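Contributing new complexes? Match this layout with copper (II) ion.
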Amino acid sequence: MRHRLHLRLLVAFGATFALGACAKAPAAPKSAGSVSFATLKDGDTVKSPLEVCIDAQGLVVEPAGEVKPGHGHHHILVDVPLPGLDAPIGKDEQHIHMGDGSRCHTLELSPGEHTLRLLFADGMHVPYDPPITAQVVVKVAAGE
Ligand SMILES: [Cu+2]
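Output block (do not edit by hand):
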């Protein structure tokens, strides 16, 4: 009797453990999606303020919050390298979060060359791995 109870507990524990493992968020969901600049090409000469609009293929763009595979929001990184892919993207004037789920954002840029990088991340601002990203270098003309 005692032995049987012990066994039952063990089975229950095992089942709980297995359920727990399943309920965990999938690690770094592989996504076939991509992002691109809707109107900008590498090497373009532009004026500031510059409206940047982003196209997403195979992704669901939505406000920040919940983490769901293939879902997330856009970020624009200005003159900074690709950040680590295992942590939320920082937030400052060079790391712009479009956490409202929008696809366009207006940038104020100083004259000269700027590197603009798109980076799509999940509802908690963590980039996908491999990264869903695109980059252009633009030249901002001096205002008159
Ligand atoms: Cu974000």
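Reviewers usually confirm one structural detail per submission. For this one: The chain has one domain: 32-140.
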